[in-house]
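User: Once you have settled down, look closely at the record that follows, taking as long as you need, and be ready to discuss the fold:
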Amino acid sequence: MNSRTEQVAAFVLHTRPYRETSALVDLFTLEYGKVSVVARGVRRPGSTLRHTLQPFSVLAVRFAGQSELKTLHQAELAELLPSLSGNALMCGLYANELLERLLQPLEATPQLFLNYKVLLNDLLQFHDHEVSLRLFEQALLRELGSWRDLSRCQQPYYRYDPVHGIRAVAEVSSAHFTGDQLRSIEMGEYTDPTIKKAAKYLMRELLKEQLGDKPLRSRELFQSRSKGRKGESE
């Protein structure tokens, strides 16, 4: 990618300071997947880009460069979405961190981009945040090639093993899931609370394989926020 791109749709995943007045910005784009860019001068007083390069807003951007790190040439709001707050904000930050850490640079994932937009819309519309996250995690794991077709789980009981993955077991006492729960997860059917609990455990274990030992900052923030709210109620 030597020449400047045409305008492409993008979301900001993460921003961090770079040199005196610039910033490194990880973007999630429709056409190029995850792209890291240098936003020059964005931290100068009065920079209009400072208010544009915010998470959860649909942007139209242009960038260029021969290396993996591109230079941002233009960014403007394409669609101004309402601000996320509370648990919805925590969920959005969690999704952003997953994309930032697990996506390979410059590999287009157009379906996952659409899944991400659906997630943000659900968070804005006060849908069941837990279900929305499970559906997004499933889409991400499928994109990463680490999702097994759970509709084939026809045995009564199953267990997750870090080495062998999901495998059938003979006794309910050693099971993590029932076959019915796994098939419901595959279909995105979360009417039963036990299915939500099973899906949360499964997604966490599968994502742990991809993330390694480094903890998620967003998960720690969410846990800290939950403890604070519990303390206030007590």
